[in-house]
Amino acid sequence: MTLTPVPTGETADSRPSREEAEAAVRTLLAWAGDDPNREGLQDTPARVARAYEEFFGGYAIDPLELLQRTFSEVEGYDEMVLLRDIRFESHCEHHLAPIVGRAHIAYMPTHRVVGISKLARVVDAYARRLQIQEKMTAQIANTVEAVLEPSGVAVVIEATHHCMTTRGIHKPGTTMVTSRMLGCFRKDAATRREFLSLLGNPTAQGLV
Is the Cα torsion angle 172, 94, 181, 147 positive or negative in sign? Predict the structure, then answer.
């Protein structure tokens, strides 16, 4: 499978300036009904701009490059590699509300493995963009498959979406679970069950 880097949005030349971004925040504060010039809000536009740089720093990262350094001296190891409970924070592209959850990534190596911190960095690279959970799940799995060329990849993401817990339908305590199974994880039920059993109670998750 061949992947091209995900477009990172507008070019540096077409992006609004920092001053324009801060002015937009002031407009929203006024639209919300407050006075952006009062003492407590005077520095808020600058703080929000800095926060956005952190929240959406993933646009400046190429996830494909994160996995380029691999290790082939693995003594023929070809069993499952699983990194679970990778905490992430993202934002819903529909309401800009937080998505907070955990990602679990597994792959079956063929001839090379990657440092486990790189898997966590791939999660962060995609999480730190405006997202929907389904797309993020597929992006992570497709990237691992494209670069490592394993015999299979599995990704499960469990997350709480504040766009439905703190607004709209107001249903706190709900968790959304998505999965992407490629290669042997999709074709071989036993391999899939082994992966899901390591995550705990896969039947309850509705993924078996």
Answer: negative
